[in-house]
Amino acid sequence: MEKLFNRSARIAQELQKKIAMIIQHSIKDPRINTIITVSEVQVSKDLSHARIFISFLKNDDQLNIKKILILLNKASGYIRKLLCQKMRLRIIPNIIFYYDDSFLKGNKISLILKDLVKNKKTSYFQNKIKDK
Questions:
Q1: Phi and psi for 94 in degrees, rounded to 5?
Q2: What is the reported pTM?
Q3: What is the C-alpha to C-alpha distance for residues 43 and 94, in angstroms, rounded to an integer?
Q4: Residue pair 16/41 in contact by the 8 Å Cβ criterion
Q5: By its UniProt entry, which PANTHER family does this protein fall under (predicted)?
Q6: CA–CA distance, 92 with 112 (Å, rounded to integer)
Q7: Could you tell me which of 45, 42, 47, 43 has the C-alpha nearest to residue 91?
């Protein structure tokens, strides 16, 4: 039977918390003018690489998103250094930031489904009125 909480999942969860705190409090770049949320962290099995998925509070344009990703990826060495101080790991993983648009996609699907339900209800009631 597989373990419920394996080591890499626990480390990923802890990395998510620590990186979110570091981005919030330690990175003071004026070009990053939005609130960044760390939505998921995927760690390789040997814990040498980590994919950090981030999303933004505001819906920024694609150009601004790319700029922020470039800035964060350039600051990944500094973030690793701060992680070394905050976490007791033998290997601190290399960090690569990715944009996570799953919230926007989910919201879009939800709006489409609401619209379908609304249209179905109105067409149902229109058919009932015609039947009378």
A1: -65, 140
A2: 0.77
A3: 10
A4: yes
A5: RIBOSOME-BINDING FACTOR A, CHLOROPLASTIC-RELATED
A6: 42
A7: 47
**Total length of the chain:** 132
Cβ 77 vs Cβ 17: under 8 Å: no
What is the C-alpha to C-alpha distance for residues 120 and 98, in angstroms, rounded to an integer? Answer: 38
The secondary structure of the chain, three-state, reads CCCCCCHHHHHHHHHHHHHHHHHHHCCCCCCCCCCEEEEEEEECCCCCEEEEEEEECCCCCHHHHHHHHHHHHHCHHHHHHHHHHHCCCCCCCEEEEEECCHHHHHHHHHHHHHHHHHHHHHHHHHHHHHHC
User: Are the C-beta atoms of 68 and 36 separated by less than 8 Å?
Assistant: yes
